[in-house]
UniProtKB/TrEMBL annotation:
InterPro entries: 23S_rRNA_MeTrfase_RlmD, MeTrfase_TrmA_AS, MeTrfase_TrmA_CS, NA-bd_OB-fold, SAM-dependent_MTases_sf, TRAM_dom, U5_MeTrfase_fam. The keyword 4Fe-4S applies. Gene3D superfamilies: 2.40.50.1070, Nucleic acid-binding proteins (2.40.50.140), Vaccinia Virus protein VP39 (3.40.50.150). Belongs to the class I-like SAM-binding methyltransferase superfamily. RNA M5U methyltransferase family. RlmD subfamily. SUPFAM superfamilies: Nucleic acid-binding proteins (SSF50249), S-adenosyl-L-methionine-dependent methyltransferases (SSF53335). Catalyzes the formation of 5-methyl-uridine at position 1939 (m5U1939) in 23S rRNA. Residues 5-63 form the TRAM domain. Keywords: 4Fe-4S, Iron, Iron-sulfur, Metal-binding, Methyltransferase, rRNA processing, S-adenosyl-L-methionine, Transferase. This is 23S rRNA (uracil(1939)-C(5))-methyltransferase RlmD.
């Protein structure tokens, strides 16, 4: 393959020796790593170079010469060009095995730790699971139509035109094409860049971001669309605080977390459409059960829940312990967490607003002794918190992670600096058909 900066148009054969952490096949051509979209481990493919980089190249499959025995036919008609999913062509068992391998490699390479026990993977329904997300909108004059969808796989600058989405919540997945039809007839078609969606147990909400005021005609069209399809319609003329309902007047978004224990009441959490909630409702329930199993909350325990959000973990834990404190950086989430506690009759949960990526060791909650801790940080992880927590009284930590590299780094800190043992860990398939790795780990000392 040529070493010039130009991208050759001639396809080349490649043997795929690995599956990358982003779900692309990995090959070596003339000593250089090539990431091949659409290729699976063990396959022989014909590929075409897409883009050169200094240390690696990117390519796309033109033809699969020798397919993997784990290759399956993608269910979604838009799979080839939509970036929403990258692993629909790989069977479910192999998908979860690949994620488990990514987690193990990160523990070994970054944290220099190995769990004493690998937990069985948590899996659920792989279709129609996505209850939250963002759709891009673009009015393409050259094509003479409005595109609504996720970004294109091969060129993220462009919007992939999709009619339906197989992984999206069924209240919206089959209707993505109808959104394009709706927008194409609106006056503000060129000033609506995105639509966010969020579903509770009983209602799906759409948030239309608009850069210019909407005409009465457009407002009527959006209202009629919501009424026809049973969707709550919100408008967002500015930042997140500008979001407000158009129809109905007072929509209610909420989801229930079953306790799994006849002696313990369920918890219901209300939320706003742009609030962070777990994308997969079924897996959130399964994750909650595993978290409680690992944390083993006792009636006398005092528990600290960091990065608590709406209280997704805090409130179910509160049903089982003497006291729990949740800490979160976003004021609105903390306010709604406290409201959810009151709404559920929970009086042993307290919440604090604090930026957990800054030093909080002087805060009252950080100085107190905690029997157990729960960590559920964003991708950046919790290393800043681990500079001053946990205290010596803390004997058990459950860490829920959305990024295996930051979990592995923080596992190394807990083991090597705080004297914990990595008792168990495993993956949770929160995002089926994607390369995203959600995981959970238990630390004890």
């Amino acid at each position: 393959m040529s070493r010039s900066n130009s991208v050759p148009s001639t396809p080349f054969e490649a043997h795929i020796t690995d599956l990358g952490h982003d779900g692309r096949g990995v090959a070596r051509i003339d000593g250089k790593t090539v990431f091949v979209s659409g290729a699976l481990l063990g396959e022989q493919v014909l590929a075409k170079l897409r883009k050169r980089h200094r240390h690696f190249d990117e390519a796309d499959v033109v033809e699969v010469i020798v397919p993997s025995p784990h290759r399956v036919e993608p269910r979604c008609q838009h799979f080839a060009h939509c970036s929403g999913c990258s692993l629909q062509h790989l069977d479910a068992e192999s998908q979860i095995a690949a994620k488990q391998r990514v987690l193990a490699e990160n523990f070994e390479r970054i944290g220099k730790v190995t769990p004493q026990l690998w937990l069985p993977p948590l899996t659920g329904e792989p279709w129609g699971y996505r209850r939250k997300g963002r759709l891009s909108v673009r009015n393409v004059m050259k094509k003479g139509r409005v595109l609504v969808g996720f970004r294109e796989e091969q060129n993220p600058r462009f919007v992939a035109e999709i009619q339906q989405c197989e992984v999206m919540h069924p209240a919206l997945g089959p209707k993505v094409g109808l959104l394009a039809d709706l927008l194409s007839g609106m006056d503000a078609v060129d000033s609506i860049p995105q639509i966010e969606f969020a579903a509770g147990d009983e209602l799906m909400a759409l948030v239309f971001r608009h850069m210019q005021p909407l005409s009465e005609r457009d407002l009527a069209a959006l209202t009629a669309f919501g009424q026809q399809h049973g969707l709550a319609i919100y408008l967002q003329p500015g930042g997140n605080s500008s979001v407000h309902p158009l129809w109905p007047e007072n929509p209610r978004l909420a989801f229930r977390i079953a306790s799994g224990d006849a002696a313990v009441a369920d918890v219901e959490l209300e939320f706003q459409p742009l609030d962070f909630v777990q994308v997969n409702a079924d897996m959130n329930q399964r994750m909650m059960a595993r978290t409680l199993e690992l944390l083993d909350p006792q009636p006398t325990d005092r528990v600290l829940d960091l990065f608590c959000g709406l209280g997704n973990f805090t409130l179910p834990i509160a049903r089982r312990v003497a006291e729990v404190v949740g800490v979160e950086g976003e004021h609105g989430l903390v306010e709604r967490a406290a409201q959810n506690a009151a709404r559920n009759g929970i009086d042993n949960a307290r919440f604090h607003v604090a930026n957990l990526f800054e030093d909080q060791r002087a805060a009252d909650w950080a100085r107190q002794p905690w029997d157990k801790m729960l960590l559920d940080p964003p991708r950046a992880g919790a290393d800043k918190v681990l500079e001053y927590l946990p205290h010596k009284q803390t004997r058990r930590i459950v860490y829920v992670s959305c990024h295996p590299a930051s979990l592995a780094r923080d596992a190394g800190i807990l083991v090597n600096q705080h004297g914990f043992k990595l008792k168990s860990a495993g993956v949770m398939d929160m995002f089926p058909h994607t390369a995203h790795v959600e995981s959970i780990a238990l630390f004890e000392r």
